[in-house]
Every structure is written in structure tokens, then in C-alpha cells.
């Protein structure tokens, strides 16, 4: 079986019609959900791109792999999805974005050339690359945000789009007379991007995915990783005018959230992004464009799924749709991501398994607590490869697909956020090592532990599902906070760094016992079995030999 691992960037869990959105219709993704299982309580490992993706590609928690912020390198030697799959004879390919930054210092220290196969895989997060484009070609006085080559920009130039950075001048900008109306300025979000729709990022990447599949010899896993609906919030015609103010869901927020707020939450609401998305004029501009971007993504899923069906590949390909994190879009007086309210930390997750054993669960929803690293474990399991439990911290979701009872279900879900590089760290005067947040969520409660001596945040998900009331300082909820901290404590004691020796290795060593002649604590030879002490008994050999 082949595996198509599709990830959208910054797609909210609830901006799909199968998830209940009343105005945004996504029939192609809905059709996949009708054939597979849709997980309604899926959490990202971190509400920021780089850290979330490094967890998705390693199957490990953020504090386990250590790449805790955008641009923080994933250390050399960290096991990746590609490593586990290739060990089982399955190819692992990238089509799109990873946000991976190579550990060049570590590679140099170990003498790994980026031009070698091993070095290239280390630099590309364990993938073999069909096409990599991280899709963030911002440009300022310090140069480009992304420094690798852009196949998408090269494509646009070949199509006749001018300038040195058509990603910025055409794909993510409108036109105002003879002037560029950049998508970076949200006032332009309701304008059509100045690009022919088939040449925009999402259709281009779908073309790349189809080209890969056409030539692929299985078994393979292809990570098709779209940049949209990530900002800049601008979309080409006709998608720019498909939605209007009447299609915008009222924001989930309450002025009481701003009364004596938690200092971390307050700092995010008072930043540039929070202030902007608290304004209705910004939401009125951005959300219809965001919905248009999602609609374009769904239409491209229609193209991709049609190709799979017409080629017969839908019969032997598992399809997974998810996101790296969500987008506040003004909920809770916030924009972007960063914190742990549902719009940011929950992600869509749909898994279609074409095998007969998955037939009983087709079209079902599952409310079990799952994490992004569980997708990693699921892919390895579905490919028939070994997911070593001392390395992979996720749990396979295959039992949920086949209607079986999982051996152990998650009692809680974890997400982490290191904001040391965020301006909020400076605003609060927090030492970088203390700028860390840990979320633990059950079905009924969500607690955010804040390092740096600050109180936690606590939400009663059963009675306050919209997370409008922070109970982190309420004495009446001390017991609930203690219970959630106990969950976090249990998680913190996990075995996460012994990745070179498995429990099975240890069990086998114990079974074999002492066979190496190291004898400790013995008073005389008779206290040891003859086989172990034999080497140390008998006549003294000659001192000198000819």
C-alpha cells in the first residue's frame, strides 16, 4: 500500500463543511471523510510551524527532538519518518513544504556532505525530495526569509511573470493600477491575486503531486505539503469573491477575557497581530480570503482524487489529510496561532484506508484524543514497517480505522510552545529558557503550564467549550489544576532520550545474563557458577613464553 500524506498549512479544524462550517462547502474533503475516519480531537504538538512539523516528521514530542522554533535546526541523527520507512523498503518523498532547517554545524562536525545521499536526507528532514518549496519568499533588508531555491518562483518566471520575486509581486499580491498591492497588507485581502489561477501555489503543487505519482514505483509515501491557507491572505479570482461578510462566523471572544488576563495571554492580545485581528475591519477582509483559499484547496483535492480514481491508485493508496496548526482569525482577540485555544491547537485529521479491514468504520467520526505524532506512527504501521517504541512517541491509529479497541487510549493530549524567539518573551522580561508553555488536555479540561513563575491557565471544556473563562487563578478549581498537573508530571517522566537501545534489547540482555566474566560482589569462587568462574581458576600460566 502507498501512502499520500497531505498537510495544509494553518488550516483550522472547523473550516470544513464536514466539521460543521455553515457557509464554507468542501465537498471533496467531505467525500474523503465519508470513505474514511474523521478524528475530531486531534492536537498539534506545537502551535507554530517549524516545531509542529519536526514532531510530525519524527514522531516525537517537541522537547524530545529539540527543534522548538521556526529555523531551529533538527539535530543530526534524529530519526525521521523517512528513516523508519526506508528501513522497511518503502520510499519517502517530499512534495512541498517542510520548514526544515538543516543542522549544518552538526553535519560539518561529522563530515557529512550535503551532496551525499545521507547528507541530503539529513538536510531535508529525512525525505527524498521530488520538489521542495517552503513557500515563504518574504524579502526585507536582511534578505529573504527562506534562503533555499524556490522551484515555484522558477516556474513563475518560466511562465513570463516578471521581477526577481514573482511569489511576492504576483502570487501573493493584487494590482492597484500599475502598483503592487501586496498581500502582506490585509487591506488588500479582498482583491484578486494578480496571477492566473492555474499558476497559483495550490494548483502548482497539485501538478507536482500528480507528476510524482505518475512516475512513482511503489511502495511509497509522499508527503504533499501545501503552503495555503497560510498567510499572506490573498487568493486569485474567482475565489476572492466567493465569500463575503455575510459568510463570516461571529468571533468566539468575550470582553471578560481581557479582565485581569494571564500575562502571557495579555501580551499576545496586545501585540501587533492581536490588535489587528481584534478589529472587525480586519476580519471582514481576511476571513473571506481565508475561506477562498480553503475552497481552492478543496477544489485541488478534487483534481487529485479524480486522478487517483482514474488511474486506479485510489485502490492501493492510504490518504491522510491534516494541518500543522490552526489560525485564530480574531477568536479570543488573537490572530495567527501561538497559544492553545482550539482554533490554534486543534487540527483537522481524516484518514482513508482502502483496505477491506477498514470497511466497518467508513464515514465514522472518532472523538478519541489523538496527536500529530500518532499520524507518524500510523504511516509506519500502515506501510508494514517497524515503529520502534523507544523512538516513536506516537501511537498508531490503525485500530480506530479497523474498528478494534486500541490497547491503550490516550488519557490526555500534549502540546508545547517555546516562545523565546517571539517578541512576547521580551515584552514579559522572561529569560529565554523560561519562555515555555506546556498544554495538557483531556476531554473535560485543558491546562496550560507556564514556566517563569507564572500561574497556569485552566479551561473547563465540558461547561465552557469555547474556552472563554480562564480558571487558572480560581481557588475553587485547585483540585482540577492539581489533577491536570499530575497528568503533565506523568508525561514529563516518559523515557524519551534512550533512542539507541530498545526495551527489547534490554530484555534480551537480561535473558542472556552475565556471559562476559565480569564478577562483582563475590567473596570466593564457589559463589559463582563454574562456567562464569572457570576462566579465573586453575594453574598460573608461565610468566614468559618463547
Overview of the molecule:
The protein has 546 residues and is α/β, with parallel strands linked by helices. Helix content is 32%, strand content 15%. It has helices at residues 27-35, 49-58, 62-65, 81-87, 104-110, 117-123, 151-158, 166-171, 201-215, 263-270, 272-277, 280-311, 342-345, 372-382, 398-402, 423-428, 478-492, 503-512, 530-533, and strands at 2-8, 37-39, 42-43, 91-96, 128-132, 139-140, 143-144, 173-176, 179-182, 192-193, 220-225, 235-236, 317-323, 349-352, 364-366, 370-371, 413-418, 436-441, 445-450, 457-460. The strands form six sheets. The protein has an eight-stranded mixed beta sheet with strand order 5-4-11-1-13-14-2-15, with helices on both faces. A hairpin with a 2-residue loop joins strand 6 and strand 7 (143-144). The mean pLDDT is 96.
Sheet/helix structural class: alpha/beta
Rg of Cα set? 26 Å
What is the 3D form? globular
Q: Quote the distance from N terminus to C terminus.
A: 66 Å
Number of strands: 20
Strand order of the largest sheet: 5-4-11-1-13-14-2-15
- Let me know the average pLDDT: 96
Q: In this structure, how is the largest beta sheet organized?
A: 8 strands, mixed
Strand content: 15-25%
- Enumerate how many helices there are, as a single number: 19
Unreliable runs, pLDDT <50, ≥5 residues? Answer: none
- Fraction of residues in helix: 25-40%
